[in-house]
Amino acid sequence: MSKLPKAHKFIDLSDYGRPVARVIANALQNTSFTPVHVTIWFIISGLIGIYCILQGYYWLAAFFLIFKSILDAADGELARVKQKPSYTGRYLDSVADIILNALIFVAIWSVSGTNMWVGVLAFLGLQLQGTLYNYYYVILRNKFNGDTTSRVFEYETPVALKGEKQKHVDILFRLYKLFYGTFDRTIYALDKQAQNSHKAMPKFLMTSISTFGLGFQLLIISVMLVLGLKAFILPFFLAYTLMIFVFIGIRKVFY
């Protein structure tokens, strides 16, 4: 099951790991491994990548960060091939992502000597970028019969799906709201009418906005690390946050 029907699929630059993720998911389809197990794998991969950054092993850091991105796609793929979507997996994935993102930026700040406030603002910008991408993507999926495990607005705790416990959903949803609530409200305030647009977001615009996706962000970090540009990583993400206003402006004017 795809996240979007064929007519509305776009080139997602953050989703380069999807082919390998599908191979992993298909290999695990008839095993006892669950999507949550794969999420735990990507947490471990991300932590190893962070350790490698701190130790100056930048090629290894790049490998584990990109592998983390692949596994991040594989947990969702496994849920789809097993036909077992879950809110537990959805929120655990998101909570793990933001914690790992914060630790990655702390590690980069530690080895690059970048001003602390540049690092803090860059992290906030990184999260706002990802929130805008997810906001538009979830709207597209909900409008055109795509995957609906993610919701446009996360106001109330969802009812647990078959095979998961409500208490797990409750806990993870509270953590999700704690970590993402401010980012969600900020992006919604900047573009409240996106969900009411009668036009589908064009594929070229969604492809451009997909540079805000976490997979592409990790790829940029990895490339800059191996090229010896660690001092420019945090300033880059701070500056690239300005593209939020460009993309929202295009959406408002034309769509």
TrEMBL record:
<dbReference type="Pfam" id="PF01066">
    <property type="entry name" value="CDP-OH_P_transf"/>
</dbReference>
<keyword id="KW-1133">Transmembrane helix</keyword>
<dbReference type="GO" id="GO:0016740">
    <property type="term" value="F:transferase activity"/>
</dbReference>
<comment type="similarity">
    <text>Belongs to the CDP-alcohol phosphatidyltransferase class-I family.</text>
</comment>
<keyword id="KW-0808">Transferase</keyword>
<keyword id="KW-0812">Transmembrane</keyword>
<feature type="transmembrane region" description="Helical">
    <location>
        <begin position="204"/>
        <end position="226"/>
    </location>
</feature>
<protein>
    <submittedName>
        <fullName>CDP-alcohol phosphatidyltransferase family protein</fullName>
        <ecNumber>2.7.8.-</ecNumber>
    </submittedName>
</protein>
<feature type="transmembrane region" description="Helical">
    <location>
        <begin position="38"/>
        <end position="71"/>
    </location>
</feature>
<feature type="transmembrane region" description="Helical">
    <location>
        <begin position="91"/>
        <end position="111"/>
    </location>
</feature>
<keyword id="KW-0472">Membrane</keyword>
<feature type="transmembrane region" description="Helical">
    <location>
        <begin position="117"/>
        <end position="136"/>
    </location>
</feature>
<dbReference type="InterPro" id="IPR000462">
    <property type="entry name" value="CDP-OH_P_trans"/>
</dbReference>
<feature type="transmembrane region" description="Helical">
    <location>
        <begin position="232"/>
        <end position="250"/>
    </location>
</feature>
<dbReference type="InterPro" id="IPR048254">
    <property type="entry name" value="CDP_ALCOHOL_P_TRANSF_CS"/>
</dbReference>
<dbReference type="InterPro" id="IPR043130">
    <property type="entry name" value="CDP-OH_PTrfase_TM_dom"/>
</dbReference>
